[in-house]
Design a protein that fits this description.
- By secondary structure, this protein is α/β, with parallel strands linked by helices.
- The protein has 2 domains: 34-220, P-loop containing nucleotide triphosphate hydrolases (Rossmann fold, 3-Layer(aba) Sandwich); 225-277.
- Helix content is 45%, strand content 13%.
- It has helices at 3-19, 62-76, 94-108, 126-133, 156-162, 187-196, 200-212, 225-238, 245-259, 264-277, and strands at 34-38, 43-46, 84-88, 113-117, 139-144, 173-179, 216-220.
- A 7-stranded mixed beta sheet has the order 2-1-4-5-6-3-7.
- α5 links the parallel β5 and β6 (173-179).
- α8 (225-238) crosses α10 (264-277).
- The termini are far apart.
């Protein structure tokens, strides 16, 4: 191409950039109760709506609730606190608990505690996020829902965010993650390491050391029938649903059998169906 053509193309590109609409301004980390990290754009955005339930409606996880509440309250007060890994059975309220605990503590502390959600795919950009949050005169709970790694995924960058690195994690940041896997990785990855590594114990230790960097482990297990029915009754009372407890319990048990599980998620799905049949909104 000639110099004249190159110059024309540069002018066209500059003109198109001027015509393109400007992207939304990044959210101010000092504003809003909940934020979302956009790793591709390296910016925060405000969460327009947070899908959470009142903390008193979370049944069957009393110990986990009180433990995470205490840890979060200490962090909000500037006291030592641990990163937390909530692991275990699906649908048992792991992510709901994180969001409800944040809402509870933020309300107690005058909204000086913000929740910042990031996605697993954006882990590599977390150092940039920490650079945004560290100078803010506010405390932040970083939250990753359904954190896990498969073969080929890079998990090492998260280690530095949790504890490692020269600078370490900022004092005003803590990380909460949920996962169905206790060690964040499928068993076959760990077993493969045992069978192929020259020193199997070193390879396995290196992989499970990621979950070890969460100082607080909270296990969630399938609900008993009594716990499941307590969840159903709690929702029914909250939303003033009609019917006798016996009728409701029989219907809820049948509902759980068709799903093959008893959990908070299944209880909520039953309540949605029951409220819909009764013509009531769940506001």
């Amino acid at each position: 191409m000639t110099k004249a053509t190159d110059a024309l193309l540069e002018r066209l590109a500059a003109a198109l950039e001027r015509l393109a609409p400007a992207g939304p301004a990044p959210a101010d980390p000092m504003q809003g109760s909940a934020l979302v990290w956009d790793g591709a754009a390296a910016r925060l955005r405000s969460a327009e709506r947070v899908n959470r339930v009142p903390i008193e409606l979370l049944h069957g996880i009393d110990l986990q609730r009180e433990t995470l509440l205490g840890n979060t309250r200490r962090f909000a007060q500037g006291l030592p606190a641990n990163n937390a890994l909530l692991w275990g059975a699906r649908g048992m309220g792991k992510s709901s608990l994180v969001k409800s605990v944040h809402a509870q503590v933020a309300g107690e502390t005058g909204n000086t505690l913000a929740l910042v959600e990031f996605h697993r795919e954006d882990i590599a950009t977390l150092p940039r996020l920490l650079g945004v949050l560290a100078p803010a005169a506010r405390r932040f709970v970083l939250f990753c829902d359904d954190l896990s790694f498969d073969a080929g995924d890079s998990y090492r960058s998260l280690k530095g965010v949790l504890e490692g690195g020269v600078e370490g994690r900022p004092d005003n940041v803590i990380l909460y993650a949920t996962s169905n896997r206790r060690h964040l990785m499928p068993r076959d990855m760990i077993e493969n390491e045992r069978s192929t590594a020259i020193r199997p114990e070193e390879g396995v230790d290196e992989k499970v050391s990621l979950s070890d960097r969460f100082g607080l482990w909270l296990g969630f297990h399938p609900a008993t029938q009594d716990e499941f029915l307590a969840m159903v009754d709690g929702y029914a009372a909250r939303f003033a649903l009609t019917g006798t407890p016996g009728e409701r319990h029989a219907a809820a048990i049948e509902w759980s059998m068709t799903r093959g599980a008893r959990s908070g998620r299944v209880a909520w799905q039953f309540i949605q169906d029951l409220a819909g049949r009764q013509g009531k909104r769940l506001d």
